[in-house]
Amino acid sequence: MEALAQRIYGDAAKERPELIQELRDANPHLENLNDLPDGTPVLVPPSGDPKIDDVSTAADPQLEAAMADLAGALNDFEQRRSEVLTERQETFAESARLASSQPLRDAGGRDVVAQLDSIVRDTATLISDVGVERKALADDLLTARTILHPVRRRPS
Predict the structure, then answer these.
(1) What is d(CA 58, CA 155) in angstroms, rounded to the nearest whole number?
(2) Cβ distance 135 to 90 under 8 Å?
(3) N or C end of the chain: smaller count of CB under 10 Å?
(4) Residue pLDDT, tens place only, 88-121
(5) What CA–CA distances, in Å, run from 35 to 20, 24, 29, 32, 86?
């Protein structure tokens, strides 16, 4: 692991042993380097030193294609999940509208009106929950994109 850290971080690996531990923590699959197949990906945690972290490397077409595919998959997931949440929110809003309709309330007795009131309250909570899910989705996607950002390489 020390040799790998030396290749990645240069002399900084010797001066800052925590970089080796961060590399080990980010890559538990590297515990036994002798058993790794060629091409095994390595997550390189930033060192915090712009001289090391901003080093330009030659573009890797496979990496670039994989990153583009992953970005596309995240975008597709975001769009589909957003559509599902919108459909749920619209369904809950329609349920609340129907439960609030005066003709339906007039047709039922006191027990029916109490049940309809309960439906309106419950759907308001469900609509609020959709908002919470939207926020969580946005946060999760931001986290995923932030984590993936350091993996991208700048062109030479």
Answers:
(1) 6
(2) no
(3) C
(4) 999 999 999 999 999 989 988 899 999 999 999 9
(5) 19, 16, 10, 6, 48
pLDDT digits 0-9 by tens, 43-94: 788 777 777 776 544 456 777 788 788 888 999 999 999 999 999 999 999 9
**Within 10 A of 139 (CB to CB), how many other CB atoms are there?**
10
CB contact at 8 A, 110 and 130: no
Statement: the pTM of the whole predicted model exceeds 0.85: no
DSSP state at residue 58 = -
In terms of C-beta density within 10 A (0-12 exposed, 13-18 middle, 19 or more buried), how is residue 24 classed?
Answer: middle
Q: Which two tokens stand for residue 92?
A: 């809950």
Q: Compute the distance between CA of residue 72 and CA of residue 95 in angstroms, rounded to an integer.
A: 35
Residue labelled with tokens 């961060």: 22
In angstroms, rounded to a whole number, what is the distance separating the alpha carbons of residues 44 and 16? 15
Kindly state the DSSP code that residue 99 receives in the 8-state scheme: H
